[in-house]
Design a protein that fits this description.
hydrolase; RnhA-like_halobact; five-stranded mixed β-sheet; Ribonuclease HI; 6 helices; 2 domains; five-stranded antiparallel β-sheet; RNA-DNA hybrid ribonuclease activity; TATA-Binding Protein
Length: 197
């Protein structure tokens, strides 16, 4: 359960700017509470506690963002196509800003890789990062995004468009293919989602 040390008034402004309308708290100690998807943020003096499922997007809006981040993403499919999951890690100079994983239904391995990248970019965007340096162990996704490979599959073409739209929202970005061992944390998170999801 993430605890974000912050000024609840500023955190509230950030949520309102993202069209999330906080409500009154349930107790005397709660300043306000807000929901997004399965996650709920509850503000107290000097901090906001985020609980529930898939807290990353809500957390992203509440934290101080800006600057540059390294984004690691991964997708895994058991069966190709089959049950799939994604994992992501976003790292700044201060360490891990956020990480997570989730099951995404049945897809191919390449669709899962794209889904991991897209989700990680959405989280990075929510944090307000201006520059992202992305690392993926999927050579296909990296080369398709960079325009070095053609995208023949209609499903992957759609995912590439989605990823490119997200990338265009950053001041600058780079995308690099790395061996799996350099993407180990995101890879492990994607695989852990099968055990716990």
């Amino acid at each position: 359960m993430p605890v974000i040390e912050c000024d609840p008034a500023l955190a509230r402004e950030r949520l309102e700017a993202a069209d999330i309308e906080p409500e009154a708290g349930n107790t005397d100690h709660e300043r306000w509470r807000a929901e997004r998807g399965d996650a709920t943020a509850v503000a107290y003096d000097g901090k906001v506690v985020v609980q529930g499922g898939d807290t990353a997007r809500l957390e992203a809006l509440l934290r101080e963002g800006g600057g540059r981040a390294h984004v690691y993403s991964d997708g895994a499919s058991r069966g190709n196509p089959g049950p799939s999951a994604i994992g992501w890690v976003i790292v700044t100079g201060d360490g891990i800003a956020t990480e997570g994983n989730k099951r995404i239904g049945d897809t191919t391995n390449n669709q899962a890789e794209y889904a991991g990248l897209i989700h990680a970019l959405e989280v990075a965007e929510g944090y307000g990062f201006e520059e992202v340096e992305i690392r993926s162990d999927s050579e296909l996704v990296v080369k398709q995004i960079r325009g070095e490979y053609d995208v023949n599959s209609p499903e992957l073409r759609e995912k590439r468009v989605q990823a490119m739209e997200l990338l265009s929202g950053f001041e600058s970005w780079s995308l690099e293919h790395v061996p799996r061992e350099l993407n180990e944390r995101a890879d492990n998170l994607a695989n852990e989602a099968f055990e716990h999801g």
